[in-house]
Design goal:
alpha+beta; 201 residues
């Protein structure tokens, strides 16, 4: 009876040992896989830096940036007069929304703004694709297969994001200052156009 209990206890111990070894092997494989991914990512960054491509495929993230600025002035006179100016800006990526900032006191000032597709993004898409191809070639020549595979995936993501950004990559602000008639006072605008932009190149 005692012998049977000892055998059962030994089997349990061996089973626990087997489970522990299995868990340890999985942990090692996981760590090795993560280390390999980290190494491939570091290698990819080095090759991309060599071809001057440092922005990730998803871009810099949306941030408010200054796009352009307008100053207009309609001088006080006998008759009405007005001064209209426009400014435009093509971003290095996707414009999510815009806003107009008043830089100081304005009077008799009207303005409008919009954002739209400029139709110029294809040029940048080709440039980015060529940079990835150059980096992939360097990694291939150095026999860094994992880095090559990673950069091919990054290229596909980056190009897709550029195509989406092409829908709204430019913005325009138009402002008009008006004077009142019969020396009723001049008008002026001092405005900045800002955009929430995710830069992709």
């Amino acid at each position: 009876m005692i012998l049977l209990i000892d055998i059962i206890r030994e089997i349990k111990n061996m089973h626990l040992l087997t489970l522990s070894i299995g868990a340890l092997i999985i942990l090692i494989w996981t760590n090795q896989g993560q280390a390999a991914n980290d190494t491939a990512a570091a290698q990819a960054q080095q090759f991309l830096a060599q071809v001057n491509l440092t922005i990730p495929p998803s871009g810099t993230g949306y941030q408010w940036i200054s796009l352009c600025q307008i100053k207009t002035e309609a001088i006080n006179a006998i008759g009405e007069n007005h001064d209209t100016k426009s400014c435009t800006y093509t971003a290095h990526g996707d414009i999510k929304q815009t806003r107009v900032k008043e830089n100081g006191p304005i009077s008799r000032c009207s303005y409008s703004n919009e954002f739209y597709a400029s139709g110029t993004m294809l040029t940048y898409e080709n440039t980015i694709s060529n940079q990835y191809d150059a980096a992939i070639k360097l990694a291939g020549e150095a026999k860094y297969t994992a880095a090559v595979d990673l950069m091919q995936s990054m290229k596909a993501e980056h190009v897709q994001n550029l195509r989406v950004a092409a829908n709204k990559d430019s913005a325009k602000l138009t402002a008009t200052a008006n004077s009142a008639s019969w020396f009723g006072g001049g008008g002026n605008c001092d405005l900045s156009l800002e955009g929430l932009v995710n830069e992709l190149f």
